[in-house]
Prior knowledge:
outer membrane lipoprotein receptor (LolB), chain A, mainly beta, twelve-stranded mixed beta sheet
Amino acid sequence: xxxxxxxxxxxxxxxVFAADFMPKAFKAEFDQSFVSxxxxxxxxxxxxxxxxxxxxxxxxxTDPDEGLIYVSxxxxxxxxxxxxxxxxxxxxxxxxQGNTLVAKFFDGLKNGLxxxxxYDVRDLGDRKYELVFKKDAAKDAGVKKATIVLxxxxxxxxxxxxxxxxxxxxKKVDLLFKSITALEKFADDVxxxxxxxxxxxxxx
Length: 204
């Protein structure tokens, strides 16, 4: 689950640019790469992320674990895990807490990347920027620091090439972006999750 939620941190990272560095709404496709503790080898997953200001997030893993979904809006959030074996029930965790820490990070990026109460920012040069999370934020997010790499000559969130995350236990995850597309807005139901039939629901 930690790896999954790492994906939700992908837009913690920008530069000190104009307030329109990040669009109000966007859809992104990316590959996630990490070393599996069990398999002792690099594992790559494909994901799709949708975001709309303020506080609306939807993230889906489409390959190879198709069906893993996290959805959050300002009022509520859902985390769905499909069954491992066809015919068995899926698992859905529902929280009455919307506008999560992750959503707050997303929302904060509307003003570009600046040190704030959640993290400090360092310009590493060569289009690389490091975010070091402060104690409370690191504890809540489970991430110590992150590095973002922008495309050559770019000062635009839509041109993010790679984000590397370092967890509290020093595990590392790389996110390689395939595309990021700015949108005006999503349909309202994108950020609401309806449990499929044959699903065990746990309310937090």
